Amino acid sequence: MFTIHNIDDDNILKVEEPDPSVNYTYADYLKWQFEERLELFRGKIFKLSAPNTKHQVVSRNILVSLAIFLKQKPCKVFAAPFDVRLPVKNKKKDDEVTTVVQPDISVIFDESKLDSRGCCGAPDLVVEILSPGNSKKEIRLKHELYEEAGVKEYWIVYPEEESIAVFLLNESNKYNGALIYASDENILSKSIPGFSINLTEIFTN
Q1: Largest CA-CA distance found in the chain, in angstroms, rounded
Q2: Shared domain check, 89 and 15
Q3: Which residues share a beta bridge with 153?
Q4: 39 with 111, same domain?
Q5: Fewer CB within a 10 Å sphere, N or C end of the chain?
Q6: Which residue numbers in the chain have pLDDT < 50?
Q7: Does residue 114 sit in the same domain as residue 134?
Q8: Residues 175 and 165: beta-carbon distance below 8 Å
Q9: Are the C-beta atoms of 128 and 157 separated by less than 8 Å?
Q10: pTM (global) more than 0.85
Q11: Residue 16's pLDDT is what?
Q12: Would you state the pLDDT for residue 19?
């Protein structure tokens, strides 16, 4: 159980996860002050696992490499916490959006998707770094959500195994089977032309 404070009336809602009787929207999300970091998956609340040290090292290494590569390019890279709203069928109003995620790293080429609250629409590249607290349900749901939203390239990073699964959106708007990278292999991004990174660089403290 976790607690949400409603800013408007100072009521405190204790929400059991998952609660199949309640569907929340981004409009609800904006009214809350969280004691814990949360995401919305199709209107349902999911807690974010607290990142451990290795998670933070991996995030830093990927973020720095991307930031250096993209410095003079017309796109943006962001690290969590950074809200990404994923509208369905172009329903972008606050009370229509039911999915809000906080990817560990997001790269966005179309700057019209950016506003003062984050990103509204699919990033071109999303990187999610797993923590021990990530559930199989959460991993599966995010894969479905990113595919549905049209995220072109999706990385799932496994810090303990020091491997990365890369999913690429095909012409049918479905993810191909995962490309698995391990050891000292190089990942050559398809969504960011010219960008590559070696796994040794990612997993080195």
Answers
A1: 54
A2: no
A3: 125, 168
A4: no
A5: N
A6: 1, 4-7, 15-18
A7: yes
A8: no
A9: yes
A10: yes
A11: 46
A12: 53
